[in-house]
Write a structure and sequence with these properties.
By secondary structure, the protein is of the alpha/beta class. It has eight helices and eight strands. Bound molecules: D-xylitol-5-phosphate and zinc ion. Zinc ion (ZN) binds next to β2.
């Protein structure tokens, strides 16, 4: 199984993105968290910053929208040429329709499920997505501990994707570190966001390699 490691620049120095990106050149994708202080109780940055990140980054940008009214904004992010846009199930009235619009631009579409969001309500539309993101913490902040109960949901989503014979990526986000990534991988995740677990180390590329090796150690 191919494993992807996506460092979250939520844990980077926001005033030095160019040099911070240079320290994570071993990444498969760069995870970009957009928060609006409404959908989650925290605020990051918006379109103009992502436009600049898209110019600077040599790796594909994996944009995670933690915003309300995602129908208003998602296509503006897609127009920047980012690799993928993942939005939360609750942030739109018609998740499949929005996914179709995102995909029509050539961008990949992802569906994010918070710890309290039931999988059953959305499994019928999994085929509309390129990636399902199972949140392993409550969205909003980096540096939290993984909520163990969410691993059942990772296994459940893996089972559904396999049953539906979908090659959709299964991403996890929140509290992923060297101590748990092998276990989360065993539950069926293949795409791993890691913020603090990468950025708190001086040698970030080494941490990315260690995380990838641990996730592949099935
Ligand atoms: C949290 C964000 C995450 C965050 C993960 O709401 O979606 O992407 O950066 O950070 P860590 O890996 O530190 O939990
Ligand atoms: Zn995220």
């Amino acid at each position: 199984m191919s494993v992807r490691i996506c460092p979250s620049i939520l844990s980077a120095d926001f005033a030095n993105f160019e040099s911070e990106l240079a320290t994570i050149s071993e990444s498969d994708l760069i995870h970009v968290d957009i928060m609006d202080n409404h959908f989650v109780p925290n605020l990051t940055f918006g379109l103009d910053t992502v436009k600049r990140l898209q110019q600077l980054s040599t790796k594909p940008l994996d944009v995670h929208l933690m915003i309300e009214n995602v129908d208003r904004w998602a296509l503006d992010y897609a127009a920047l040429g980012v690799y993928s846009i993942t939005f939360h199930a609750e942030a739109t009235g018609d998740a499949a329709a929005l996914a179709q619009k995102i995909r029509a631009t050539g961008c990949r579409a992802g569906l994010a499920l918070k710890p309290g969001t039931a999988v059953a309500a959305y499994e019928e539309i999994f085929s509309s997505f390129d990636q399902i993101l199972v949140m392993t913490v409550e969205p909003g902040f980096g540096g939290q501990s993984l909520i163990e109960d969410t691993l059942q949901k990772v296994s459940e989503v893996r089972e559904i994707l396999d049953r539906q014979q979908l090659s959709t990526w299964l991403q996890v986000d929140g509290g992923i570190d060297l101590g748990n990534i092998a276990r989360v991988s065993q539950c069926g995740a293949d795409t791993f966001v890691a913020g603090s677990a990468v950025f708190k180390h001086a040698d970030r590329n080494q941490q990315i390699q260690l995380l990838r090796a641990a996730a592949e150690s099935l």
